[in-house]
Amino acid sequence: MKITKIQPAIKVAGRYNIFVDEKYSFSLDETQLLDQKLKTGFEISPEKLDELKGESEFGKSYARALELILRRPRSIREINDYARRKKWEIELRDRVIEKLSEKGYLDDTKFASFWLKARVNSKPISKRKLNAELLQKGIKREIIDEVLVEYTEVNEQDALAALIKKKRNKYTDDQKLMAYLANQGFSYGAIKEALQDLG
Fold first, then answer.
1. How many domains are contained in the chain?
2. Do 86 and 153 fall into the same domain?
3. DSSP codes of every residue in 133-150
4. CA-wise closest residue to 59 among 6, 12, 24, 102
5. How far apart, in whole angstroms, are the C-alpha atoms of residue 59 and residue 29?
6. What pTM value is reported for the model?
7. Among 32, 68, 106, 175, fewest CB within 10 Å belongs to which?
8. Which range of residues forms the domain containing residue 139?
9. Binned average pLDDT, 10 residues per bin, the chain of 199 residues
10. Is residue 95 located within the same domain as residue 9?
């Protein structure tokens, strides 16, 4: 078998289509192509072809995962879940996650800190709810405890007061308002105190 043509992919920038014996066989990104030192006219064994197809699949999967992360930071579990939905082989999934972690794109501590800041800045939220969300994202307990130190009691009181002001017109009955706030993760003690302070 012989590589008969290498040409840039039309639909995906930075990828190259490799033709073996005049037929399209696989594609590689520019880095992979340079690493493999492939050129037109190279003889290729069936074993090497299988290896290159595996590299092709890895390159595509890595690019897809990186695209997700560049839209917004992700936790390791989120990438794991994405890989499961896409039915990636376990070895491929682990390799993608390992490379993303090595490059600094996948870091649960950084993700947890990002999530905390994003959620606090978007709308009032309780510490308990933040904790539950981070657990759902697969963040380890020790990382959650570490980042939640940034979320002080003052932040929570401010968040609770802001939420009461925002929802008071909707919930004219204090019991219903309290139930809503409790559902958002605030303690009954903190809710009662905030309602008294706000009058």
1. 2
2. no
3. HHHHTT--HHHHHHHHTT
4. 12
5. 7
6. 0.77
7. 175
8. 108-198
9. 94 92 94 92 94 95 96 96 96 97 96 91 85 95 90 75 85 85 86 82
10. yes
